[in-house]
Amino acid sequence: MSTMGAEAVSASAASGLTAFTLFTYLIIPAVLLWIVQFRMSRKRLYELAEKLPGPEGLPLVGKGLEFLGTPHDIYTRVNLLAKDFEDKTIVKVWVGPRLLVFLKDPRDVEIILSSHVHIDKSPEYRFFKPWLGNGLLISTGEKWRAHRKLIAPTFHLNVLKSFLDLFNQNSRAVVEKMRKHNGETFDCHDYMSECTVEILLETAMGVNKKTQNQSGFEYAMAVMKMCHILHVRSTKLWLRPDFLFNLSSYSKDQVKLLDTIHSLTKRVLKKKKETYEKNKSAILNSIPIPSVGIKE
């Protein structure tokens, strides 16, 4: 009985070993072929990257380990890394299979930002989609061109000049708020963020301080907190996949914040539409209608 049991165990082990060996023989060549094909498809990218200065990274991960940890740790390590190349106007950094190129010269940045061809955004921009939808910031192709054409006139110099008084008022207001810190070190981020959102509300949405009330303040706070969530998600690798992010507390907070942001936006748009319809009706009613006589 024991002999038969031993033989059965041996046969099972041999069968398992054979299956494992067969699996290994199939998987390893497939993985190697995929790596070769992947690198061949990016041959041009590697050739161009070799011409750019940048830190040497580890195989496969590059300098990806530098981007692990808290936002403060990442910022500190990246700053130290940047000091080694502070005399360069362009620097490359490999983060896993992704090539990041950092530009220092404003003239180089202008070429990229003014291009109507190179308009595809980084994958991280998809984090903005629940907030901004498929708007100008994250769209590409014909949709981007159409939205860009519509919004371009609003950034005309004369339009921006018309908001100078508003910019000055908000600038003076934020300076007055910061006066209480006179002579001491403090974090100005919250002050400047609030000022930026207030200017946005007044210029782009027509919601001034007199009509903002609590809704305007809540909107400003929601925008700042949303920016924080987006920043955290971009620095924590485990929050990047949507299915993991949706399981986190950040996702629940995001839903509440977006409700606050979108609610105010919808109210403003509704009010603007009602004002437009009212003015249009008033204009139409003021147009005299000539009487048409019928010749007998």
UniProtKB/TrEMBL annotation:
Pfam families: p450 (PF00067). The keyword Transit peptide does not apply. Its cofactor is heme. GO terms for molecular function: heme binding; iron ion binding; monooxygenase activity; oxidoreductase activity, acting on paired donors, with incorporation or reduction of molecular oxygen. Keywords: Heme, Iron, Membrane, Metal-binding, Monooxygenase, Oxidoreductase, Transmembrane, Transmembrane helix. SUPFAM superfamilies: Cytochrome P450 (SSF48264). The keyword Membrane applies. The chain crosses the membrane at residues 12-36. It comes from the Eukaryota. Belongs to the cytochrome P450 family. This is Cytochrome P450 4g15. It comes from Cacopsylla melanoneura. The lineage of its organism: Eukaryota, Metazoa, Ecdysozoa, Arthropoda, Hexapoda.
